[in-house]
Design goal:
Distance between the termini: 60 Å
Number of strands: 11
Strand content: over 45%
Number of helices: 2
Low-confidence stretches: 1-30
Helix content: 10-25%
Radius of gyration: 26 Å
Largest sheet: 5 strands, antiparallel
Oligomer: single chain
Mean pLDDT: 84
Shape: elongated
């Protein structure tokens, strides 16, 4: 029994010596994937952002509402025309990466007001999950209104810009909540519904 105890003490001492000789762990290696201290976030102005998406024509109006079983009925009220979405894009200049995140809602016809909430999320891409890591929200913002002129319609925007060193990779996600309120005589569904909320999401690993 004494021999066994002595044999177990030798590797334990060796392990302690090995630990004392090991190189110290870099602070970057243990940094939280959600630590954004190296990232600079700035706000948009609320107007169309610098790299706004290409202007598109209004979505087609529904003359009939058709169901899965094949039945089609004429809308009870004229259907308002609107659109929405998220854009997330990146670019590199020198030693700096830049990411632009835009949520937008479009008012073409028959909309009296729009409300938009954007959820900005991020996570570092240097972990074991890489670009599949799960972002968490670092900010949310809301706006509302009839919209300002953008091409042949009116739009509201929420924009954030992120800059960080090219040595880093981040996963960015933008989720938008888009609510539309129809004008008198119109509806958002071609029936009788006066308002509805829709959801969008954009993602970029860069």
């Amino acid at each position: 029994m004494r021999f066994v105890r002595y044999a177990m003490l030798v590797p334990a001492a060796a392990i302690m010596a090995a630990c004392s000789d090991a190189s110290p762990v870099s602070p970057r290696d243990t940094q939280s994937l959600y630590d954004m201290s190296s990232v600079t976030i700035s706000n948009g102005t609320g107007a169309a952002p610098q790299h706004a998406r290409t202007i598109r024509s209004a979505p087609p109006k529904a003359r009939f509402i058709c169901y899965v079983d094949g039945e089609c009925i004429r809308p009870a009220r004229p259907m308002a025309t609107y659109d929405y979405g998220d854009d997330v894009g990146g670019s590199t200049s020198g030693s700096t990466k830049s990411v632009e995140m835009n949520s937008w809602s479009d008012n073409y016809q028959g909309i009296s007001n729009m409300a938009l909430t954007s959820h900005f999320k991020s996570v570092g891409g240097q972990g074991s999950q890489g670009c599949n890591a799960t972002p968490q929200q670092f900010e949310s913002a809301s706006t509302s209104g009839f919209g300002t002129t953008w091409g042949d319609h009116y739009s509201i925007w929420i924009t954030r810009y992120a800059t960080y060193p090219t040595s880093e990779t981040w996963v960015w996600q933008l989720d938008g909540d888009h609510t539309f309120y129809s004008a008198v005589g119109y509806s958002v569904d071609g029936n009788t519904q006066a308002s509805d909320t829709f959801y969008s999401s954009g993602r970029l690993c860069y």
